[in-house]
Specification:
This protein has eleven helices and ten strands. By secondary structure, it is α/β, with parallel strands linked by helices. It has a domain at 24-81 and 123-142 and 165-288: Rossmann fold. The strands form two sheets. It has an eight-stranded mixed beta sheet, sandwiched between helices. Strands 1-4 form a two-stranded antiparallel ribbon. Helix 9 links the parallel strand 9 (219-227) and strand 10. It is globular. Mean pLDDT is 85; it is low at 1-26. The structure holds adenosine-5'-triphosphate (ATP) and magnesium ion.
Length: 289
């Protein structure tokens, strides 16, 4: 039930809310995809969605990146994708649910755990058979843990999403690690952490992996994307010591991805080195549960 509280009380209310909703999921699989900028998060999310959909699984893709380019990668026509408004920018919905409009003063009462169970039916977009997309966007936080109406709503949406049964949920995130500090963690079974074969990218991946481990995400999978040689693989392996990864996958650089980018919808039926690698990753995730 939604609670109306002042902002100074929000931490206690949030803890109560988590206790109420901690029930484990019996069906479905929730996967968050993360990593440094440009490593292939959106491409891999969209391809995984298509591969799962081909296996007749119901897939809900969630775009948490304010750049909101998952729609393009899933093959939504440009003119439609460009008109999508992320839920984090939908002022009416934010006000309807939290009781406060973004930018309102600190005196406003804020409902921090609103019922957002209508979010997918109202804002989810049917992309293709078995694939839906929900663009939630993100909030640039002025201070860590800022409790503005947008964040209160997004946290509720993420908590709600992980309570949905019978679906594979794939959440594409913005570059970096900030999102791990929020409501994201609990209820996600897998974190796919992408990296390129480069030092900086691997350091971001290692940081993400530590955060994912602290948040008790059971499956933490490293995906080294755009490998061009055995030397690339050896280099990354040299950076990995005492890491918490449940699995490590190497995906090759694939000209075919560049030829059709950003749209990967047509790739799922093909057999290319990258697509075959992502197919194996999909099978491994499903078998892990
Ligand atoms: N295995 C691959 N082979 C060739 N090109 C690839 C491969 N994986 C991704 N790419 C290309 O790399 C570019 C970046 O990919 P993508 O947009 O998926 O990265 P991202 O991590 O989502 O980026 P951002 O951090 O900006 O959201 C795209 O042009 C994509 O087509
Ligand atoms: Mg992206």
């Amino acid at each position: 039930m939604a609670q109306e509280i002042s902002r100074s009380q929000h931490l206690f209310a949030a803890a109560d809310y988590l206790d109420e909703h901690r029930a484990p999921q019996t069906e479905g699989c929730r996967i968050v995809i993360t990593g440094k900028g440009g490593v292939g998060k959106t491409t891999t999310t969209a391809l995984l969605a298509n591969i799962f959909a081909e296996m007749k699984k119901n897939v809900l893709t969630v775009d948490e990146d304010p750049q909101q380019n998952l729609a393009f990668s899933l093959g939504l026509p440009m003119d439609q994708a460009e008109t999508l408004v992320p839920v984090s920018k939908n002022l009416e919905y934010i006000e309807e649910k939290t009781g406060a409009r973004p930018g309102q003063g600190w005196g406003a009462m804020l409902r921090i755990n609103p019922d957002v169970s209508d979010v997918v039916s109202r804002f989810g977009l049917h992309i293709a058979e078995n694939i839906n997309l929900l663009v939630i966007g993100s909030v640039i936080q002025a201070a860590a843990g800022c409790l503005c109406p947008e964040n209160a709503l997004l946290d509720s949406i993420v908590r709600y999403i992980r309570l949905r049964n019978g679906e594979i949920i794939l959440m594409d995130t913005q570059a970096g690690v900030e999102h791990f500090g929020r409501a994201l963690a609990e209820g996600f079974q897998h974190a796919i952490i992408l990296t390129e074969p480069g030092f900086n990218s691997v350091q971001v991946a290692l940081h993400s992996a530590r955060l994912a481990k602290d948040l008790n995400i059971p499956g933490i999978h490293l995906v080294v994307n755009r490998c061009r040689s055995q030397a690339d693989i050896t280099k990354v392996t040299g950076y990995l010591r005492d890491t918490p990864f449940s699995s490590i996958t190497h995906l090759p650089f694939d000209e075919q991805v560049m030829a059709t980018e950003p749209n990967v919808a047509g790739l799922a039926q093909q057999s290319t080195p990258y697509v075959d690698g992502v197919r194996k990753l999909a099978a491994m995730l499903l078998s892990a549960g």
